[in-house]
Amino acid sequence: MRSETESLKAGRAYAKAEHRSRVWEIVGRELRKFGTLFLYLVLVFGLFTLHQWVVLASNHISYVFYGASVINALILAKIMHVAEALHFGERFQDKPLVFPILYQSVAFGLLLVVAYVVEEVIVDLLKGKSLVQSVSDLGGGTPAGFLAVAVIMSVALIPFFAFKEIRRVYGGAAFDSLVFKARGDAPSGKKPA
Question: Is residue 191 one of the residues assigned to a domain?
């Protein structure tokens, strides 16, 4: 028969292992969330960069890709990840899905534009530009330019938040099965048409 001390040691070791397992589970979940945000933003910003290249090339202006879209995606994905952890943009959860999807898209679109403006101003100030010069470079420096960037960013985020909200309502495992498994493996047992 084991002594009481041995039982306590075994219990503590089990609790430590459980705690470590739980920590790694949380780290993995948060890394997946961040990775998803990052990859989505890399795709969106990469498309913006490609569009900029095409427009400039059509006017015979050379443009070189420097990877700024990847760095911006990394920074802005971290901002979005922290904002989500702070429950930023969580409203209308009990309403039809169109409401939380549009609300989050607009809220995060505006957040990303503000974060991008702050980032660009800081970078330009470090390069020796004045605050006025920094702001005038963004969105053409006009309110209409800023509004256009905010609208574009908000619309670009709609698919991301649509998938996120549908996954929340449908259930993570069921949604993942529906989206990532062959149609013959549909959870309802019926094959979709």
Answer: no
pLDDT at 190 over 60: no
Q: Kindly tell me the burial class for residue 73, based on how many C-beta atoms sit within 10 Å of its own C-beta (0-12, 13-18, 19 or more).
A: buried
CA distance 168 to 151: 25
Residue range of the domain that includes 55: 4-185
How much is the pTM? 0.74
pLDDT computed for residue 131 by the predictor: 77
Q: Tell me whether residue 190 is in a domain.
A: no
Eight-class DSSP state of 86: T
Question: Is 192 inside any structural domain?
Answer: no
How many domains does the chain fold into?
A: 1
Q: Is residue 121 part of a domain?
A: yes
Place of tokens 């980032």: 119
- Is 143 in a helix, a strand, or coil? helix
Q: CA dist 157 to 70, 161, 187, Å? A: 17, 6, 28
